[in-house]
Specification:
By secondary structure, the chain is α/β, with parallel strands linked by helices. The protein is built from 19 helices and 14 strands. The protein starts with a strand and ends in a 5-residue tail after the last helix.
């Protein structure tokens, strides 16, 4: 086994000799000693296996050593060895990434500490190699999946977006034209209109189709972690950051990044997002070095971003960067002719999911569905059809519960009455309907939070504010 290359940061030769002797009793070592920053930087070029640093030297101290390692993103374990240091300093060093902190009068622990630090580095290297292999495998499988779908004629490009209305066709024509480009796309529309489905179709029809499509729900990210999630962080950037982490932009490199609910980003993250869009580079949290990324951004929002700009909660320069090619998805009430074909297709898919036979939807129920205004758009239609599939006993859907959707069979008087209701009333009713459709289940796949496009805790908060009890 080759000797361990040890870099000792110490300006007292006798102390450096003691450290070297303590190590030689445990292992074969090759030692380099340095006592100032210039010689330390030069010694780093020789890539030592481990660093032993005195806590405080006139020309260099352990916090600075750790800072240099973090700035250069070097995974070299550093053990702080000192004569006397307070608990506060020890904690600070460990938070900055020190592998261990030892007193000079306890050098019997030095050998085990070095072996432990080297083993931890070896495990990190193996983990990084495994993650790289997994990324390569994922990329290969994505390319193979794309090829097989095209060969088998599966749903790709815009074939999954159902409807024949002129408004929808006009939007799809625009999307087909912009998809082959790298232009930043802003998809606007009410909740439930299918913004994510459109983003997937645009990615599938683009030259980046065989690369990752990475989705970020900006509304679901914790405010304190948004920048780390989007742009990554350096090791030691904050408490718990024990290793460097790539953000969503780096994961989407050469692919597409879908920023859902982009209007929810705080102003600080908006400024960093603007830089990525302008310059094609980012800075990880805690690391000042720029990282180049090649990402096509597709953003979506149900907010009026122009109004947010006027209110000062959204940057005007970011808005114009995102809205290079804005597209407005029509709400389902503006394409009522699409409701029957959507309802039938959703029923076909859901009956397959539940192992049921399907021959059609009762004409009276289909007419009632067509006349309803659908404040929750296609997502709400899916909820109603799924409920009907569950409760219907035969192959024809007869039990589309119109009462659940506020008298969907009502005429213009009912519609006028609904138009006079407040947004809070409509929101409260819609949440209740979704909860009914999920049997009161909030979290998990097909839970109310997922259907509504909300974080589970956000939904609970809205329910509490609206006085909605869990069913």
């Amino acid at each position: 086994m080759s000797a361990v290359n040890v870099l000792i940061v110490e300006d007292r030769s006798e102390d450096a000799e003691l450290l070297e002797l303590a190590l030689r009793e445990e292992m074969d070592v090759a030692v380099t000693v340095t006592g100032d920053e210039a010689s330390f930087l030069a010694a780093l070029e020789r890539q030592p296996d481990v660093i032993l640093s005195d806590y405080s030297l006139p020309n260099l101290d352990a916090p600075r050593v750790l800072s240099i390692l973090r700035e250069r993103d070097l995974d070299i374990p550093c053990i702080v060895v000192t004569g006397a240091v307070g608990e506060e300093q020890v904690v600070a060093c460990m938070r900055q990434g020190a592998a261990d902190c030892l007193l000079k009068d306890r050098l019997a622990r030095l050998g085990p500490a070095v072996r432990s630090a080297l083993e931890a580095r070896h495990q990190r290297a193996e983990k990084r190699a495994a993650e790289a292999a997994l990324r390569d495998l994922t990329s290969r499988l994505e390319r193979e999946n794309r090829y097989l779908r095209s060969e088998l004629g599966g749903d790709d490009d815009f074939s999954a977006i159902i409807g024949n209305s002129p408004r929808l066709h006009a939007v799809l024509d625009l999307l087909r034209k912009v998809a082959p480009t790298d232009v930043t796309l802003l998809i606007q529309g009410e909740t439930g209109t299918g913004k994510e489905l459109v983003a997937r179709a645009v990615h599938s029809a683009s030259p980046r189709a065989d690369r990752p499509l990475v989705k970020v729900n900006c509304a679901a990210l914790a405010p304190t972690l948004i920048e780390s999630e989007l742009f990554g962080h350096a090791r030691g950037a904050f408490t718990g950051a024990v290793a460097r982490s790539e953000g969503r932009f780096e994961l989407a490199h050469t692919g597409t990044l879908f920023l859902d609910e982009v209007g929810e980003l705080p102003l600080g993250a908006q400024a960093k997002l603007l830089r990525v869009l302008q310059e094609g580079e980012l800075e990880r949290v805690g690391d000042g070095r720029p990282v180049k990324v090649d990402v096509r951004v597709v953003a979506a929002t149900n907010r009026d971003l122009r109004g947010e700009v006027r209110a000062g909660s959204f940057r005007a320069d970011l808005y114009y960067r995102l809205a290079v090619f804005p597209v407005e998805l029509p709400p389902l009430r503006d394409r009522a002719a699409d409701v029957p074909v959507l309802a039938v297709e959703l029923a076909r898919r859901l009956t397959r999911k539940y192992g049921r036979r399907f021959t059609g939807i009762d004409p009276q129920s289909l007419e009632a569905l067509t006349r309803y205004s659908w404040p929750g758009n296609v997502r709400e239609l899916g909820n109603v059809i799924e409920r009907a599939v569950i409760v219907s006993s035969g192959s024809t859907l007869l039990h589309v519960e119109l009462g659940v959707v506020d008298g969907a069979g009502g005429g213009s008087a009912d519609q006028a009455e609904r138009a006079r209701r407040s947004l809070v009333e409509i929101e409260s009713e819609h949440i209740r309907l979704v909860l009914q459709a999920t049997g009161g289940r909030i979290e998990g796949k097909d839970g109310a939070a997922e259907i509504l496009g909300l974080n589970a805790n956000t939904l609970r908060s809205r329910m509490k504010k609206l006085g909605i009890d869990r069913l």
